[in-house]
């Protein structure tokens, strides 16, 4: 890919979290940037209202301005989530533009720096953002393309022209991460997911094997994961021994305290205020990579308590003695299990009500028994209809498949019924909204309902 002659960049699917980070990068670098997305969102509204982006929500090629009709000087970036019959995408394809997936462009941009890449079917967004935060707060610094909005930075993009490092969330969807060649890499999980793309769990693992082979330097895996084709630097864990692990883990006034134990160093009494036991494991991975990149133990000690997390990752929006409201992006059974287990650990005496919106018909069809098993950790479940995203309905596949296997009290509601049901029935304990669809549209409603965001 040669972008030397590029003057304008058009994004088909600009509202995606990864696409928007790239769009912000090119705009910051001085290119003419515009894009299309199917619907407006808080992210796209911020991009248009505060950052000056031109975004259209009408699938009409007539709205593509003249500056983007010069195919010799225009880069077109698209996401596979946009249907191939999309009129704007078809316009660029039919007129001979070179079309590039987001991952291709990201891989190209990462070649000029040392890429620190976090991959995994879950845990990668928090680990990536935590690593970027630790480097940013140190003398090392970094640029970063994040898969979520950092609560510390309020964005999914960091630019540091003086640092040699770029932190990248390596997404396995559509084999996107195979465009990356990391200097250092982490694999957080290889659970079965995206079977609409890979077909089988075995094929998914093969893709992770290939990603590992493309890693030039150190490679770290969560304990319990193994690779056949590539030697690893070591395993990491929390609460159990590994090459790199968090030891003496305890809860103190809503924070976690632990010791970091590496192969040849220890950092005692680290404090992390971001909730969730699984995030101690994520922190262990981030600390390990940060140390290899040159961050000092004292810089880690000072920065870690200041990490506020990632939007929609165990995101506490309201907190009082009566009720705590948390939102989480979890959309895989293992993610839901980890989040609910963390809540049980931190607030063992509180009633837990979970509202879950399944994401994709195919994922629901593949994992509905596992979804029910993880949701059974709650005291009550509120089930919404499946969010289809890019998919057409599959006959017989509804959230009812999950409901049939729940052993705890549950109710199925429509999105229209959802706010009123919560208002009338959720009075105390911990209330959690979970899912990767549009359940986040209710966050402002519930935040106001439960008393604000001053947590």
Question: How is this structure best described in words?
Answer:
The structure is a single chain. The protein is of the alpha/beta class. It has 3 domains: about 100 residues, NAD(P)-binding Rossmann-like Domain (Rossmann fold, 3-Layer(aba) Sandwich); about 190 residues, UDP-N-acetylmuramoyl-L-alanine:D-glutamate ligase (3-Layer(aba) Sandwich), CATH 3.40.1190.10; about 140 residues, Protein-Tyrosine Phosphatase, Chain A (Alpha-Beta Complex), CATH 3.90.190. Helices cover about 30% and strands about 25% of the residues. The protein has 14 helices and 21 strands. It has a 10-stranded mixed sheet with strand order 8-7-9-6-10-11-12-13-14-15. The protein has a 6-stranded mixed sheet with strand order 16-17-21-18-19-20, sandwiched between helices. The termini are far apart. The model has no long low-confidence stretch (mean pLDDT about 90). Cell wall formation. Belongs to the MurCDEF family.
């Amino acid at each position: 890919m040669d972008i030397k002659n590029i003057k304008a960049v058009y994004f088909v699917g600009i509202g995606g979290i990864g696409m928007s980070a790239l769009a912000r990068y090119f705009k910051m670098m001085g290119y003419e940037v515009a894009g299309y997305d199917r619907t407006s969102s808080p992210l796209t509204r911020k991009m248009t209202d505060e950052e000056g982006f031109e975004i259209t929500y009408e699938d009409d090629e007539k709205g593509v301005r003249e500056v983007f009709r010069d195919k010799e000087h225009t880069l077109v970036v698209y996401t596979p989530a946009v249907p191939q019959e999309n009129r704007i995408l078809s316009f660029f394809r039919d007129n001979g533009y070179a079309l590039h997936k987001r991952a291709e462009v990201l891989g190209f941009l990462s070649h000029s720096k040392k890429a620190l890449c976090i991959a995994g079917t879950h845990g990668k967004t928090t680990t990536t953002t935590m690593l970027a935060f630790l480097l940013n707060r140190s003398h090392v610094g970094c640029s970063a393309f994040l898969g979520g909005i950092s609560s510390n930075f309020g964005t999914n993009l960091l630019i540091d022209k003086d640092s040699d490092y770029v932190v990248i969330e390596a997404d396995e969807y559509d084999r996107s991460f195979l465009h990356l060649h990391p200097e250092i890499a982490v694999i957080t999980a290889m659970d079965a997911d995206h079977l609409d793309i890979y077909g089988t769990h075995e094929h998914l693992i093969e893709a992770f094997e290939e990603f590992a082979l493309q890693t030039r330097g150190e490679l770290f895996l969560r304990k319990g994961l193994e690779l056949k084709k590539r030697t690893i630097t070591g395993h990491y864990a929390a609460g159990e021994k590994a090459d790199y692990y968090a030891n003496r883990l305890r809860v103190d006034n809503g924070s976690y305290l632990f010791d970091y134990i590496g192969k040849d160093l220890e950092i005692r009494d680290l404090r992390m205020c971001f909730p969730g036991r699984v995030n101690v494991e994520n922190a262990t991975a981030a600390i390990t990579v940060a140390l290899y990149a040159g961050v000092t133990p004292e810089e880690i000690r000072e920065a870690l308590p200041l990490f506020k997390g990632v939007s929609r990752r165990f995101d506490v929006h309201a907190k009082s003695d009566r009720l705590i409201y948390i939102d989480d992006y979890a959309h895989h059974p293992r993610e839901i299990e980890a989040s609910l287990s963390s809540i049980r650990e931190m607030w063992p005496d509180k009633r837990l009500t979970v509202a879950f919106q399944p994401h994709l018909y195919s994922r629901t069809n593949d994992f509905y028994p596992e979804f029910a098993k993880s949701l059974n950790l709650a005291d009550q479940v509120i089930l919404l209809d499946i969010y289809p995203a890019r998919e057409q309905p599959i006959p017989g596949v509804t959230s009812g498949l999950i409901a049939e296997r729940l052993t705890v009290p549950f109710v199925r509601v429509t999105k229209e019924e959802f706010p009123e049901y919560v208002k009338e029935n959720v009075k105390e304990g911990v209330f959690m909204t979970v899912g990767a669809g549009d359940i986040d549209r209710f966050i402002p409603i519930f935040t106001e309902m439960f008393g604000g965001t001053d947590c």
